[in-house]
Amino acid sequence: MNSIKLHAPATIANVSCGFDILGFCLDKPYDEIEIKKISDQKVVINSIKSEFSNIPLFANQNTGGIPALKIIKDYKLDFGFEINIKKGIPLCGGLGSSAATAAGVAFGINKLLNNKLSNEEVVKYALEGEKISSKTPHADNIGPCINGGLVIIKSTNPLELINIKTGEYFFSVLHPNVKISTKMARELLPKNIKLENAVKQWGNIASLVYGFSENNIDLIKSSMNDYIVEPVRSKLIPYYDEIKETALNHGAIGCSISGSGPSIFAITNSYEDSKKILSKMKNILEKKSINFHGYCSKINNKGIEVL
User: Fold this and answer.
1) What are 149-165's pLDDT values in tens digits?
2) Which residues are catalytic?
């Protein structure tokens, strides 16, 4: 096989209280990536025109280019890759855009190499790409993008990911057209927290995971409270409190910030409810004349899709 096309999906990281350790894979939006073998030992990045096509074209500055370069070097390949990327995931939006590129390229190259890499190695190479967008690489976007479904990041060093089977849930995702870089959002976080808040947070994380594993909606709802990260990051997102309150008042099981923001997600167990809630969330920004993107998506249990 000399070329491959795939969809690399968006992800919801943190899932409220699970900072850096929980992530869901979405059906949409997604990036379209094509990778071709070329005779030269180099990596060529091409950006296919889209609303979000303003990405670095130098391989050593692109989250997909870095894994490609490292794989060529580590495996002493006598060929290189041309990578065509059509971004469908908003940049700096909290939906794992940089991770989708990194994961999609690492995953696709592995297919071109006849699955020479283990799944763990694919994740590790993708994490190398994520170092550009975050000083501390974290797998709560890359893990679910590659594995699909709900993923626990038990550890990044050594790498240990755990997939949790869940029922069918739907996400209403609102992306205000405001850029928040992952690095900036992480720098705002407190270096020390009260033990009292830590204990409440740990309890919510444990019960949230158990709630999803048992399809216990009441438990999921009562567990989706973040005492540490959301109070800080929500200040960067216009009308966040109003949007969250609206989503919850119209039947959302929970609502929180996706990743580092500014995207906001609400979760339901009905597609019709998801569409209704997204409409109510959109109305708030429309009235404030703030541009946005909106998505309704079910959980993607497959992860990256080869076309």
Assistant:
1) 999 999 998 999 999 99
2) 130, 182
